[in-house]
Write a structure and sequence with these properties.
The complex is a heterodimer of chains A (538) and B (119).
Chain A (H helix, E strand, L loop, with lengths): L6 H24 L4 H21 L2 H19 L6 H22 L9 H11 L11 H5 L8 H33 L4 H25 E3 L1 H4 L2 H12 L3 E6 L4 E3 H22 L3 H6 L6 E10 L2 E8 L6 H10 L4 H5 L3 H6 L22 H10 L3 E7 L3 E9 L4 E9 L2 E6 L3 E8 L7 E4 L2 E7 H5 L8 E8 L12 E6 L1 E9 L13 E6 L5 E5 L1 H10 L4
Parallel strand pairs in A: 2-4, 9-17, 12-14
Antiparallel strand pairs in A: 1-3, 4-5, 5-7, 6-7, 8-9, 8-15, 10-13, 11-12, 13-14, 16-17
Helix pairs in contact in A: 1-2, 1-4, 2-3, 3-4, 3-5, 4-5, 7-8, 10-11, 11-16
Chain B lengths: L3 E5 L3 H13 L3 E6 L2 H11 L3 E5 L7 H10 L5 E7 L3 H9 L4 E5 L3 H11 L1
Helix pairs in contact in B: 2-3, 3-4
């Protein structure tokens, strides 16, 4: 029987089955025991097996046959699905795609599938499937697989190394950029520009491959809220918004326990018992919501509750009992006062509970957020609720920053904070206030903040900054000005977090090394401004 | 009068291959179903002399379809068609009223020998 006339039909249907398999395997990652998906997968493999056998495409038939056996055990419940099994099946899928391509191109199907078959067989008898090295041909087509979290686990370290290498490339690039300033060669300048674009696109690709949606993290939260509400006898509903925003997986993982802490605190201390809410005329159930919005290369995540809010008087009393002077506490701006709940061991809760304990959490939350170069803000209205705002980078490591100079020292200011850069005569800045967009904004000198001596000069640069931790919902910005001598390039800085003891340096959120080898601090702008304006370190 | 055949297979690949073999041997293909439920409906509607049922199909599999069609007591014969490894299902189908079976991969000889032996 001449089967060659069925080749086009074979390819068309096999292609449909392969994409059905891909979709199915991906959804198994979310729900490993979904019997509907397992049934469909079984049929896809079965169909490919039958067609491949008829066409005489042996490696394809062998793979599909072994996969069909494995799926039969999974769908009948004889074997429990696992991440390892899904991973093996995804590996096999890559090879099957390659085989289908070879059929299409009339190339020989001489791919050795014995290692894949062995791991499928091992998986089918419940042994930990050992990942065989992928045949070279499968690697060539494997790009798409990188989005899958299970494959990422295998490749994870590689990605970190790759990202670090790109960081080094950025450093090298910035030294070339410095050289172009002194060069007249147009070819050289163009070459460096082109190199910059290439390094950027390489970086973007790696970053993209590491991104996961917030959804992956938030999926477990409704259950948490439900369980905690039950435990405390409170009525709480939970809403989310913007969970499709993707973050680097490291940052996403780092957000996990802060989110849990915040929600625990909200249910335990923020939200009132049903009777208390009824008396106060507040709606039931209480609402906890998580909302995420992006702002340039950063994400702002707000966790709000409509509970009783933070009691300032109690907070002040607690702070005093912890050794902070009453005078200092009384003179604190509200924003700074609220941040006191992040001091270790400070809590306004009356009772220690099994859920959130006393004051455990917020200091940990703040530390976790800041370790990723993020910042934390707290807003709270008495009797109306509390909002914890975390502003974080969406991707790790590379931050767009403006290089500024004051008194011969260089610093980096994150671009995400900058509203405008204005060159002015020094005398216009003497009052400590500057009129910008119709309002008076406070002006802080970077030199004064750091005790750097500067020569007197006629003109200086004012950088108008937004120092509010949130940008999304309220829309309102808190503007302030930072005075520096001069500014130069906007750079892509590969920022490394500060390690102890310099991590105690609150005015900086990271450090980078410029192309010429000089280390430069990335400024924590809200810290510098609030510290200088209030004359204290919160 | 050429024998009327209904084909049920979830892949177009096998439906086409079977159709080619059958047409080449002088059979009439009255219908092609993509799952067991369609096969059941078409068996009633198209009054075929012969139904070829693939075993692994969505919605209603070949065994379920074979049982349902047999239960209708229609003047037709059922042939199961599947790949190696499904012998127990084929046996159950035959106990439930199917008259024969074809093991994939398909060949002209296999298909025609089976059909000739039961018609």
């Amino acid at each position: 029987m001449d089967v060659s006339k069925y080749k086009a039909l074979y390819l068309q249907e096999t292609g449909e089955h392969l994409s059905g398999i891909e979709t199915g395997l991906l959804s198994l990652e979310q729900n490993p025991g979904d019997s509907f998906v397992l049934d469909n997968l079984f049929r896809h493999y079965h169909s490919i097996k039958g067609m491949s056998a008829s066409m005489g495409y042996e490696p394809m038939m062998l793979l599909a046959h072994a996969e069909e056996d494995l799926l039969d055990k999974l769908r009948s419940g004889a074997l429990a699905n696992s991440e390892e099994i899904t991973t093996v099946l995804l590996k096999c899928l890559d090879t099957m795609k390659t085989l289908a391509e070879r059929v299409r191109a009339d190339e020989p199907l001489d791919i050795d599938v014995s290692a894949l078959l062995a791991s499928l067989k091992a998986a089918a008898v419940g042994q930990a499937a050992r990942m065989p090295p992928a045949p070279a041909a499968a690697l060539a087509s494997g790009g798409q697989g990188l989005k899958l979290s299970s494959v990422m686990k295998v490749e994870g370290r590689l990605f970190d190394e790759l990202l670090a290498t790109v960081g080094d490339l950025f450093m090298t690039l910035s030294s070339f950029k410095t050289l172009t300033h002194g060069s007249r060669s147009v070819e050289f300048k163009n070459g460096v520009h082109q190199l910059g674009k290439t390094v950027n696109s390489l970086h973007d690709t790696i970053i993209f491959a590491r991104m996961l949606p917030l959804e992956d993290l938030a999926a477990g939260l409704p259950r948490l809220v439900r369980d905690l509400a039950k435990e405390t006898g409170k009525e709480v509903s939970f809403t989310t918004e913007g969970m499709d925003i993707s973050l680097d997986r490291t940052i996403l993982e780092g957000l996990g326990s802060p989110l849990v802490h915040i929600i625990r605190n909200a249910i335990d201390h923020g939200i009132e018992q049903t009777e208390e809410r009824k008396k106060a005329g507040k709606p039931l159930p209480a609402v906890i919501s998580i909302k995420a919005v992006t702002r340039k290369d950063r994400v702002v995540i707000e966790v709000s509750d409509d509970g009783r809010g933070i009691d300032r008087e109690r907070l002040k009393a607690k702070a005093v009992s912890r050794g902070i002077s009453a005078e200092k506490v009384e003179s604190m701006a509200d924003r700074e006062l609220l941040k006191l709940i992040c001091l270790p061991g400070l809590s306004t809760a009356e009772t220690v509970t099994s859920i959130s304990g006393r004051g455990v959490g917020m200091d940990v939350v703040k530390e976790a957020v800041e370790s990723f170069g993020g910042s934390l803000e707290i807003e709270s209205k008495r009797y109306l609720g509390t909002k914890i705002i975390m502003e974080m980078p969406r991707t790790s490591s590379i931050t767009k920053a403006l290089l500024v100079e004051t008194g011969g020292e260089q610093f980096l200011v994150p671009i995400s904070r900058i509203e405008k850069v204005i060159e002015l005569e020094t005398k216009e800045l003497e009052t400590g206030l500057y009129e910008y967009a119709g309002t008076q904004i406070p002006v802080v000198s970077l030199a004064a903040a750091f005790g750097i001596k500067t020569e007197s000069r006629l003109r200086r640069t004012l950088i108008v900054l937004d120092i509010k931790g949130t940008y999304g919902s309220a829309g309102e910005k808190i503007l302030a000005g930072l005075v520096v001598d001069d500014f130069s390039d906007e750079i892509d800085a590969y920022v490394k977090p500060l390690l102890p003891p310099i991590s105690k340096l609150r005015e900086a959120s990271g450090i980078t090394v410029l192309g010429d080898g000089r280390p430069v601090f990335l400024l924590d702008v809200p810290q510098i401004i609030s510290k200088t304006l209030t004359g204290r370190n919160p | 009068m050429p024998k009327k055949v209904l084909i049920a297979d979830d892949t177009e690949f096998f439906r086409t291959a079977l159709r080619d073999i059958l047409l080449g041997a002088g059979y009439t293909v009255v219908g092609e179903a993509a799952n067991g439920a369609e096969a059941l409906d078409m068996a009633v509607e198209l009054k075929p002399d012969l139904v070829i049922l693939d075993v692994v199909m969505p919605v209603k599999n070949g065994l379920e379809a074979a049982k349902a069609i047999s239960a209708l007591n229609l003047p037709l014969k059922i042939v199961m068609c599947t790949s190696l490894g499904y012998e127990p299902i084929v046996e159950e189908a035959i106990r439930s009223g199917a008259s024969g079976y074809i093991i994939k991969p398909l060949s002209e000889a296999k298909v025609l020998n089976t059909l000739n032996s039961i018609i």
